[in-house]
Amino acid sequence: MPYLRYAPEIEQPEPDEQATIDGIIEGMTTQVETVEAREHHAVRASHAKSTACAIGTLEVPDDLPAELAQGMFAKGGTFPVGVRFAQGPGETLGDRVSTHRGLSIKVFGAAGERLPGHDTPVQDFVLATGTTFPSGTAKGFLRDGTVISGSAGMPELAKSAVSSVARNLNRVLQTVGTSSAKAEFFGHPYDHPLINAYFSQTPLRWGEHVAKIGAFPASAPQDALRDWRLNPHQDEDGFRIATVAFFRAHDAVFELRAQLWANAETQPIEDASVEWPEDDSQYRTVATITLPRQDAYSDARVRYFDEELTFRPSHSLAAHRPLGSVMRARLQVYKALSDLRHRDNGVPEASPTRIEEIPA
């Protein structure tokens, strides 16, 4: 099957979409303010608790086929990257509340036309566990975000119970060969963060084409972690401790892969809750991310990543513009919530242009 081409008209915004986005911003602002009142500090509205903050390289091979050699991947080369691993909730909960996880990548030296308002030579990719975004659309995002925002004041013990029920539900579903994206979102297994694959979940422009992307673990030391499980009663920060310990002893490697858009019927642009069938197109490697041994949680590094740095879908080349209902919302939501967080904490937002600006 030939790969489909990007064109602006493949996006189909709903007439009232801006009102929906305004509602998302309002609801998530309330969530941030509720958490801030409790923690006496403003944190990210999602993926607040970092697990590791690493630097490394993203290497693009010289011989990608034409359909993959697009945008910043058009020719071979090596780019410096800053990478943040984080737990899903928009508050700093103990690790017994194990929900979806995030992997944010900031690529330095990405040259080319950029999205409006983005004036630094960087490309951000914001990924999470799970191949789909369960809310599907901006309206679903508003609906589910309202529930999550309303639960911000719940006791941590109650959130732990919800996470446990969701995790056990998915375990039962997997015994019959299926799973629930929403159950995975709220109840991720107690496995090691460096053995997970992370996905864009939503499509993005891939130069002349369209793709979803994923980062897949690709080293023997990571593979050896497949049987590792957190004891949720032993340490509230067990995921962080295990990940930082790994980085002290080993390099971490991920293959960045793209799944090109090939079937408009089975691979929708506007509904991110639909998994793109690999029968139509498979994930194919476009680059290798190497994070060498390092101190991935030094005080200076963590303060910079958690307090000053932002990762946004809008930090993008035009050739990798995020697409679809959810991402059009995120282009506005991420900026509004980042502005709120930095303003309330009295910390200027960092906009680095070189990897050397990240503390060693």
Automatic annotation (TrEMBL):
SUPFAM superfamilies: Heme-dependent catalase-like (SSF56634). InterPro entries: Catalase_sf. This is Catalase family protein. CDD domains: y4iL_like. One of its GO terms (molecular function) is heme binding. It comes from the Bacteria. PANTHER family: DOMAIN PROTEIN, PUTATIVE (AFU_ORTHOLOGUE AFUA_5G01990)-RELATED, DOMAIN PROTEIN, PUTATIVE (AFU_ORTHOLOGUE AFUA_5G01990)-RELATED-RELATED.
